[in-house]
Specification:
about 500 residues, 16 helices
Length: about 500
């Protein structure tokens, strides 16, 4: 019999509906997997007792015929989502020990749909990073290894813990947040599906903020259909979030189940052919276009001329917003407090001890670009570039229905390999940042392995609030790629 931890969200839902297993048995099987693979450091806080309590309540609801969309499905929650009564740290020393008295909207929606929480996953501190090595609680290890090389690889970031947990079969699905690629890039590195919805599709209320105009919650799963199911449960208008779109939630799962893309125009942006991209990823990208063509789609070349400015503009906008958002962590109201001889020294001591190196770097950059005399030269200019990037996408979508690009320029790299050069680290997100700057939905689908046996992902980008078309194309790509590889030993 197939192990419960090998089943997808959809398969687990079917097994639970047929009463072939119970939510408590499913939770126990996944909690055992957590125990076996704790060395990956994917979790900051495990919640086994809460999981069993939620699973028992799920079984009771099902017995009454009251089953939700994700009834009895165990999920891992990125430790950026506030969870009532459960520590929420954002992987930072400054929030260590903080226990919210409220629940984020996204997790509230998931619990209403019947999902079960097994724990809170590790991440780059305050979601700032592309490796999951900046966490105060230590780096996360990718379950994958290069052939013949036992070095630990990074899972990508910032949502690396959530991605590693799904790739290691500790959970069938998890939540992440994507500011500039923090769902899609780890999904590519870990050989799973990662979906960033349109900005405003999922509420940001109760999610620890990094860059408010860019942050967007989304799901990880092992299949496109599973990611669609999770998004369906997570999404919805929230009056508590002024940026939440007042739109009905479509049947995303139905879109993912119908990979008919005959006549669909797939845009191939010429500006995404950039130096530093692995030749294997270039070849996979071409192969992906051929796969979609064979499935009935029509590849068309499009231009996104301002792509080259997306990365520098992002690294002005995101740190500027981060410096503003993180000003609240001062040792006065909640979190860490390091005393000083006066208030100014207490602020200095608290923030110096509480924030890690990468967070301090971004706060300093953000404070500089917002300072008097520099605002117009940097922040305002970056926002103007952002408008041009959005216009590029609008013009491209006049010629196509979705865009196909690589997700990341390389496969997963070894822990510590690029850590000394922040600019090299920032380049990890060069394919994902443009869609984030324009607020568009994107999904990474595992599409092949490199010569070292590591997974590589391809990204599909859709029109704003047209996740359905994007999911149809993603399901067609997934079917054509036939990716079944998994990390050895997991």
């Amino acid at each position: 019999m197939t192990s419960l931890t090998d089943l997808t969200v959809t398969q687990l839902g079917a097994a639970l509906a047929k009463k072939e297993t119970s939510a408590v048995e499913v939770a126990d099987a996944h909690l055992k997997k957590l125990d076996e693979h704790r060395a990956l450091n994917a979790f900051i806080t495990e919640t086994p007792e809460k999981a069993r309590t939620m699973a028992a309540a799920s079984d009771a609801r099902r017995a009454k015929g009251d089953a939700g969309l994700l009834e009895g499905i165990p999920l891992a929650i990125k430790d950026l989502f506030c969870t009532e009564g459960v520590q929420t740290t954002a992987a930072s020393h400054i929030l260590e020990g903080f226990v919210p008295q409220y629940e984020s909207t996204v997790t509230t929606n998931l619990w209403k749909s019947g999902a079960v929480m097994v724990g809170k996953t590790n991440l780059d501190e305050f979601a700032m990073g592309s490796s999951n090595m900046t966490s105060h609680f230590g780096g996360v290890e990718n379950p994958w290894k290069r052939k013949g090389d036992n070095r630990k690889l990074v899972p990508g970031g910032s949502s690396g813990g959530s991605a590693a947990a799904v790739a290691a079969h500790m959970v069938p699905g998890s939540t992440g947040t994507d500011t500039g690629g923090s769902i899609r890039q780890p999904a590519s590195f870990c050989g799973i599906v990662g979906l960033k919805p349109t900005y405003g599709r999922c509420s940001r209320w109760g999610v620890v903020a990094f860059a408010s105009s860019l942050d967007q919650p989304g799901p990880f799963a092992r299949t496109v259909e599973d990611s669609a199911l999770l998004l369906q449960a997570m999404a919805g208008h929230d009056p508590k979030d002024s940026t939440s779109a007042p739109l009905a939630v479509p049947d995303f799962a139905a879109a993912a189940r119908t990979p008919d893309i005959k006549g669909l125009k797939v845009g191939i942006p010429r500006e995404y052919r950039v130096d530093g991209t692995s030749p294997e990823i270039e070849a996979l990208w071409s192969r992906g276009a051929e796969m979609l063509k064979a499935a009935g789609a029509v590849p068309v070349e499009v231009s996104l001329p301002h792509t080259k400015y997306a990365l520098p503009a992002y690294y002005i906008v995101a740190p500027a917003e981060c410096s503003s958002n993180l000003a609240r962590y001062d040792g006065v109201r909640f979190g860490l407090r390091v005393p000083g001889k006066d208030l100014a020294e207490m602020y200095q001591n608290t923030r110096g001890a509480g924030f890690g190196k990468e967070v301090r770097r971004r706060i300093m950059i953000g404070t500089y670009v917002l300072s008097a005399g520099y605002y117009d030269a940097y922040y305002k200019k970056a926002q103007q570039i952002r408008s041009l990037i959005a216009r590029d996408f609008n013009q491209a979508f006049e010629k196509c229905d979705v865009l196909l690009t690589p997700t990341a320029p390389t496969a997963a790299f070894a822990a510590g390999e690029k850590m000394d050069d922040p600019v090299t680290m920032y380049l990890n997100d060069m394919f994902t940042i443009p869609a984030s700057m324009a607020g568009l939905p994107g999904i990474s689908v595992p599409a092949g392995l490199d010569k070292d046996g590591l997974p590589l992902g391809l990204q599909l980008i859709g029109r704003a609030f047209d996740e359905e078309t994007m999911l149809r194309a993603a399901a067609a790509l997934e079917k054509a790629a036939g990716f079944t590889a998994r990390a050895a030993g997991y």
